[in-house]
Structure of TRAP transporter large permease protein:
Amino acid sequence: MISTVSIGLLALLTLSIPVGIVLFLLGFGIDAFFSPFPLIKGLGNLVWSTSNNATLIAIPFFVLLGEILVRSGIAAKTYAALDRWVSWLPGGLVHANVATSTMFSAISGSSVATAATVATVAMPQAEKLGYDAKLFSGAIAAGGTLGIMIPPSINLIVYGFLTQSSIPQLFLAGLLPGLLLALGFMTITVIICMIRPELGGMRRVFPIGEMIRALVQLVPIIILFGAIVGTIYKGWATPTEAAAVGVAGAILIAAYFGGVSLQMISDSVVGTIKITSMIMLVVIGASFLNFTLASAGLGAELKSILDGLGLSPLMTILVVVCIYIVLGFFIETLSLMVVTIPIIVPLIVEQGFDVVWFGILMIVLIEMALISPPVGLNLYVVQGARKSGKMSEVMLGTIPFVIVMLIMVAALIAFPEIALFLPSSLQ
């Protein structure tokens, strides 16, 4: 049955059917052929119970937060400020791509929104200053993936919802690996540009006074991050309440910089509705599919297969990592998460692994899927912002950053404390 479901999923996705609809169609098919009783009769209750959850209200708030920051021009100011601080490194403006992605990730919660924002701002600079198209665009695509690791992360909220684990602990667990990934991206850029200086474009050094003045542009973002994440960690607000605080703070900041208008608010709301509708369709469709898979006995079948292999806990994790890497080539990342979590996570927990730690490991693998052809969303986002050149250039440019992600996967398996240190120390 596992092979049947996988083939069906890939076949429907190749027809360019929206992912949420694919999940519903697969659920209907499994219900008809494998389930012992008609589950479709309970579809209404399932849809309502899945969507009627206070935790998921955080998703549209975080999406709206990102939309406001992008459309009000705050993201562009952040990029310009970080450019003055990191462009002296080998690689020049490439580091501003990573640094801006890191900072924007700390308030947006979305990898696609992060990549789109940085790409829109940065691409004109790359053409003007003569940067290598592959490395420059690859850094933006890879840096954008930090949006689902560094808190607040929409994907971590979905993971916490599906596994009934602590979202504040997941946010804490994602902070250090996210910052280490950003540092790794910058390190690999320095190494490449020391070997091939022509790839990094011109290094620029700004007067110290101009650098200090640029810090003013970063203060609002830092305050906003502190307001969102700090209230969650202190227990003053739930993730949903903190997201609402973040939206209010973003509007105030945008108003201070003169970026608020009726058109901006209207565009932000419309963009939020579109993105949230897509996410919720995928989450609800995946819940129905998971319900039918569980009723058809897929979880038990997968468990028996792994038990039959007689693998050690470490080998089980390595097999799961390989599964996610392969599936990441073909399945959109959010649907990959929601389809596999109810099946994989119980098996992992049964092996004695921490559910929070595995959530962070999964997010790194999902990040890799975001920049893996042919389905990697960030590749298309960056290529769309370029408006010229070949998609293959973006794909090739992400290879060094995929290597950094693989190193992070190995580090998390070897040293789980990388993810668990902050949650355990701040309990």
